[in-house]
Amino acid sequence: MTMASSAPACAASELVARGRESAAVLQALLLGQQAPAVGGAGATPHGFRELTDQILRCCDRALAALRRSGTEDDADSGAGVRKRKPERGYSSSDSPARTSKRMRVRAGERGTRVEKRQTMEDGFIWRKYGQKEIHGSKYPRLYFRCTYKDDHGCMARRQVQRSEAEPSVFLITYFGDHTCCRDDEEPPAQFVINFGSSTSAGQPSIGSPPPRPSCNDDVLEVCKTPDLCNSPEDELGSGTDNVSEFIEQSISVSDLTRMSSMDWDPLNGCLDYWMLCDGESSFGIGEFIGHDFNYLDLLQ
DNA sequence: CAAATTTGACCCCT
DNA sequence: AGGGGTCAAATTTG
């Protein structure tokens, strides 16, 4: 990823200005003054919520842009995938870019994040590439990579494991950046994907266009400590004490739908995910679409 | 038939 | 040696 160091600052500046504008509108509404409608927001609870959401988003993204400007080098090296040395059975040309969790941890990989969620949905399209029984763990760990790994070279990955302490909760560990939607091009992810088991709804189900990965209401907690990625369940423990407290403000489905209609740009979309990768974000990725997928993989 | 998932095997690390 | 992450052939699904 290459970006001029001043670009994030400019973006942050724009975002702060946008956020301030929204704050001004909100203030006017609260004071009962006449205010121009922003995004259709009016002096209603819905309108207030919309404005506050917008303000918060702008602030968060601005912060992320600024942080990113100071840590780009780290992020580049951190999220990068190190190739293993050529292995037996692989030709030099097709030697896969395998990664080792230990290698990443040892190298201080950034861009890892653990979330406790009620759903595996996060707005991105993931492709399952593995499943492993974890020693001492009741539930298997599922391995996903971005569907657009091949098309866009997106190296985002995630691991999903059902919490033993809270079976209704998924511990999702994210690795790497989503580079599949950073360009000016239209974001590739325009579908909701439901990961299910092979025995039933094994194939992803395509539904209505999902909201942009930004705020969500099913993120219970987010742990931004990369080390936790080693073993989310172990390190998170049975409770929530070890997890940095983070409770997402709930967002209605209608809000999400509206958000999805926002103009797509890196600041409105994938930047949210960058923030996660920076481990500094105050909000999670993805949105809650529904709970209609099967948990059989993790139930066993 | 193309794309996604499953699952056994391989490899690295401790 | 064993655990964990990833690959890739086989299988399944739409």
Polypeptide structure, described:
The protein is α+β, with helices and mostly antiparallel strands and 300 residues long. It is built from eight helices and six strands, in the order H-H-H-E-E-E-H-E-E-E-H-H-H-H. The protein has a six-stranded antiparallel sheet. The chain is elongated, with a radius of gyration of 20 Å. Residues 1-8, 36-40, 67-110, 183-217 and 225-300 have low confidence and may be disordered. The protein binds a DNA duplex (14 and 14 nucleotides) through helix 3, strand 2 and strand 3. It is found in: Nucleus.
Task: Provide a short characterization of the protein structure.
The protein is an alpha+beta fold.
Gyration radius from CA atoms, angstroms? 20 Å
Mean pLDDT: 53
Unreliable runs, pLDDT <50, ≥5 residues?
A: 1-8, 36-40, 67-110, 183-217, 225-300
How far apart lie the N and C ends?
40 Å
Indicate the proportion of strand residues.
Answer: 5-15%
Query: Main sheet: which strands, in order across?
Result: 2-3-4-5-1-6
Assembly classification: single chain
Anisotropy-based shape: elongated
Question: Using DSSP, what is the number of strands?
Answer: 6
Reported for the largest beta sheet, the result is: 6 strands, antiparallel
State the helicity in percent bands.
25-40%
Give helix and strand order, one letter per element, not per position: HHHEEEHEEEHHHH
Strand-pairing-aware structural class? alpha+beta
**What is the helix tally?**
8
Subcellular location: Nucleus
Protein name: WRKY domain-containing protein
GO cellular component, one term: nucleus
Keywords: DNA-binding, Nucleus, Transcription, Transcription regulation
